[in-house]
Amino acid sequence: MAIRWNRLDSPVGTLLLTADETGALTSLSVPEQKKGRTVQEGWVHDPTPFRDAEEQLAAYFAGELKEFQLELRPDGTEFRTRVWDALDDVPYGATTTYGEIAARVGAARVAVRAVGGAIGANPLLILRPCHRVIGANGLLTGYAGGLERKTALLTLEGAL
């Protein structure tokens, strides 16, 4: 069960994608990402499972695609998975807050920090749009890929 990987150039830097043995995407990392993945010994460089992702990401960055249709299989706890699934419901060009995501997953208001931690641990940047989550005060806050990338993605989507 070797992890497959490939790199893709993009307007926000070189993307590192990983997939499991079935071809489902398990991560998308950007350079200098907090807790981002790096190629490990034993991983297999194989661009084949990433063809659809490459095409869809190119269309997204060209402003032609608003919703990804890819098989995603991130590894996370049940709580994190619920939070990551809730990110998929934030439409292209829109933003939401950490508190709104907490409410969507049925977490108590005091759990906003845990929701923020789950969002920060999202292993599928861009594909799972954690960049669309902003602070309750409307300010851009934390993004594992860096606020410059968050700004670029939200600008591309017309949210800024």
TrEMBL record:
Primary site of residence: cytoplasm
Subcellular location: Cytoplasm
Source taxon at top rank: Bacteria
One GO term (biological process): methylation
Reactions this protein catalyses: a 6-O-methyl-2'-deoxyguanosine in DNA + L-cysteinyl-[protein] = S-methyl-L-cysteinyl-[protein] + a 2'-deoxyguanosine in DNA; a 4-O-methyl-thymidine in DNA + L-cysteinyl-[protein] = a thymidine in DNA + S-methyl-L-cysteinyl-[protein]
Residue ranges constituting the Methylated-DNA-[protein]-cysteine S-methyltransferase DNA binding domain according to the UniProt record: 78-159
Residue ranges crossing the lipid bilayer per the database entry: none
Enzyme class: transferase
Active-site annotation: C130 (nucleophile)
Miscellaneous information on this protein: This enzyme catalyzes only one turnover and therefore is not strictly catalytic. According to one definition, an enzyme is a biocatalyst that acts repeatedly and over many reaction cycles.
Role noted for this protein: Involved in the cellular defense against the biological effects of O6-methylguanine (O6-MeG) and O4-methylthymine (O4-MeT) in DNA. Repairs the methylated nucleobase in DNA by stoichiometrically transferring the methyl group to a cysteine residue in the enzyme. This is a suicide reaction: the enzyme is irreversibly inactivated.
Protein name in UniProt: Methylated-DNA--protein-cysteine methyltransferase
